[in-house]
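#onboarding

Welcome to the new folks! Below is a worked example of what a typical request in this channel looks like: someone posts a single protein sequence, and someone else replies with the predicted structure as tokens. Don't worry about understanding the tokens yet, we'll cover that in week two.

Example request:
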Amino acid sequence: MRRLDDPLSPLIDQLHKDGRLRVWSLVITIFGDAIQPRGGRVSTARLQEILERMRIEPGALRTALSRLAKEGWVIREREGRRSFYRLSSKGIAEFEPATRRIYAPVQIDAGKDWIMGLAADRSARAKIEVDVLASQGLVLGVGGFLWQANEAPDPEWLRKRGILTVTGQLNDVPPAFKLAVAPEALRSAYQKLMTDFSDLEAADLAPLDAFVARILLVHHWRRIVLRAPELPIALQPKDWPAAKGRGFVAQLYRDLVAVSEPWLDRPVAGGMITLPPPDTSFSRRFS
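Example response:
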């Protein structure tokens, strides 16, 4: 039920308006952001309290956890009547590279070598683009592909897909080319996130509200940065919002963490279930 004068209402309303709500994806965000740094195991009761604050019914959480367990993302553990979940080895393997991209600092790519590729077979380009994105490559709007040289697939992977490549630094890129390769949808996504969260003041929120706002922030940010790698600085058009967007998210995230961590410290289920403190990697996010 929607609360009157709820500071999170605009964000929660938007969450439910963004098409069919993928509760399982929200659960993965919660695991990655808050549970993995604190021992990796969480009770169903704690998850339910978080999702109820987002106006998500307990039945939807049960369905999401069942799906994640069936697909091998999480492992269920029982202690008496209580249920706990942790990421499986598969879930952790998927989570770790995503975490590096979500919580990375603003990029600096001066002096880096890049590999630019072009599909020799234009008819197969759509299939190749899917593979390129899965390999953490960047699909350019002009039909090319781009990887940092030290992160590119091996030569055999490129050969099998008929990708012709050239390696070098990105120097003196013409402005017209920058505009051609920059996805307008990505620009809009950065700007929308900053607009949606611009009125949020962490200091005015209760600990649970700050935690939910933090999860919603990371969930939106995650969908932006995991959809495609950020454009190299040399290819960014004038006023490209990537650095501003990451800086905005980093500062708001730090503010929300300061208010929300006490909620994670508190026990749930009658004072019986607590989480350990976060590990050292947590304090290095966005830095």
